Amino acid sequence: MFLDVNELAIHKLRLRRSYAPGSVDYHEVDFRQVDPLEVHATAEAVEGQIRIFGELHTRLEMVCARCLEPVLEEVSREFDLFYRPLKSMTDEEEARLKLDDTEIAFFEGDGLFLADVLAEQVLLALPMKVICRADCRGLCPHCGANLNTDECRCEAHAGDSRLAPLARLKQDWFKKQ
Ligand SMILES: [Zn+2]
Ligand SMILES: [Zn+2]
Questions:
Q1: What single string gives the DSSP state of each residue in 106-155?
Q2: How far is ligand 2, taken at its centre, from the CA of residue 85, in Å?
Q3: Beta bridge partner(s), residue 54
Q4: How far apart are CA 111 and CA 8, in angstroms?
Q5: Which helix (H) or strand (E) holds 92?
Q6: 153 C-alpha vs ligand 1 centroid, how far in Å?
Q7: Distance, CA 158 to ligand 2 centroid (Å)?
Q8: How much distance in Å is there from the Cα of 172 to the middle of ligand 2?
């Protein structure tokens, strides 16, 4: 859905939308949307800017940072965003903005796509990393076995090598008898 600043100037829009998995492009491969992306929002024009405020909710499948198994993550976010028209800025203003490092969003032409706004908000709502459970044991760094479910033999072998000198000592002792 395209939000046109000229139409919003005439009347504000109350939005209630549901985006099926796959219909929003997140430009991201680390997760997958598994539930519809639900949004309740209002869009309006304020002094030539587009304001969008409301809330979104969905559920994503992410990857456990320790064991790499899939994890379902609830994502909810409230937002209140202002977008300035890109052409309204003078070069001088633009230069000053870069110096200030201020976070101001823009739209090009007549407006912007709601789906793009939502995709960005979902990305901002993501946790830095997820783990499948607090006591996830992760993967064995040597053989890659998932230590939650698989038995890894690396530890046993490491134990063997530590005991090796003792075993040799025992052999020597038996030979002497
Ligand atoms: Zn895990
Ligand atoms: Zn291992």
A1: EE-TTEEEHHHHHHHHHHHHS-S-B-SSTT---B-TTT--BTTTS--SHH
A2: 56
A3: 41, 79
A4: 10
A5: helix 91-100
A6: 19
A7: 10
A8: 32
Cβ atoms 9, 45 nearer than 8 A: yes
Kindly report the number of other CB atoms within 10 A of residue 114's CB atom.
20
| Placement of tokens 């379902």 in the chain | 72
Q: Which of 122, 152, 126, 130 is nearest to 139 (CA)?
A: 152
Residue-wise pLDDT tens for the chain (177 aa)? Answer: 999 999 999 999 999 999 999 999 998 778 999 999 999 999 999 999 999 999 999 999 999 999 999 999 999 999 999 999 987 666 777 666 665 655 678 999 999 999 999 999 999 999 889 999 999 999 999 999 999 999 888 866 555 555 555 555 555 655 655
